[in-house]
Amino acid sequence: MTWTGTAMPTPTIVDNTTDPQVCGQKHTLADMVVSSRSRGVQNVIVALTDVPAEKIPPLLPDRLVLDNRQCSFFPHVSVLTTGSAIEATNSDPILHTTHLYGPLEANIALPLKDQRVQRTVESAGLIIVKCDVHGWMQAFVRVDPHPFHDVSASSGAFRVSSVPPGDYTLEAWHEKLGTKRIRVQIRGGETKRVALEYSAAQP
After folding, report:
1. Fewest C-beta in 10 Å: which of 33, 78, 83, 163?
2. How many CA atoms lie within 13 A of 106 on its CB side?
């Protein structure tokens, strides 16, 4: 996942007056993270969108720890399979909420440091996560009924493993740059290299 635009983008920075003794007076939204060395775009969700049910292997429930830390959500972007759990936790000595919107609707209050609350995700879709106390805090969790998805690393690289042979649509989504889709054809035993590029926000 590579940035090909002329000017290097930067994340949005916001001023803060809520709990500045813990959160600081300025905060990044982490909505645009591009490597100055590789020009790789981080935090792009990549997933197959049209996997036939008969090609989906049995799923083992996973668990995502979504941490309220230094007044940000960690991780900022992640993927899960249906039947997995989101465990909201608070590493800060102040009140946070982990408010989930989408296929899992819940508003989890975490007033105590190191408090943990878990919820199971039963339906696929994009979960948007916000904190009701600190308005800049935001995260995204894509839930799929299959394991053929990934999130791009700081280098922009991603890997979708063990894809059964077939023709698929590969979808890439970024919170600010939008969605791209390409068709990919996988043959048995083949490793397929896919290059995706962003140069500006999508219309």
Report:
1. 83
2. 17
**5 falls in which pLDDT band (50, 70, 90)?**
confident
HSE at residue 147, side-chain half, CA atoms within 13 A, is: 13
User: Which residue type, as a one-letter code, is found at position 95?
Assistant: L
91 phi and psi angles, rounded to 5 deg? -95, 0
In the predicted structure, residue 203 carries a pLDDT above the cut 60: no
147-166: per-residue pLDDT in tens? 999 999 999 999 999 999 99
Q: 180 Cβ partners below 8 Å, 6+ apart?
A: 171, 172, 196, 198, 202
Cα within 13 Å of Cα(86), Cβ side: 35
Residue 82, token pair as written in the block: 């249906």
Contacts of 132 (CB under 8 A, 6+ apart): 97, 99, 107
The pTM for the full model equals 0.94
pLDDT tens by residue, 69-93 = 999 999 999 999 999 999 999 999 9
Q: 143 and 124 in contact (C-beta within 8 Å)? A: yes
The hierarchical CATH code for the domain 2-198 is 2.60.40.420
CB 115 within 8 A of CB 91: no
The structural domains of the chain, with segments of one domain joined by +, span: 2-198
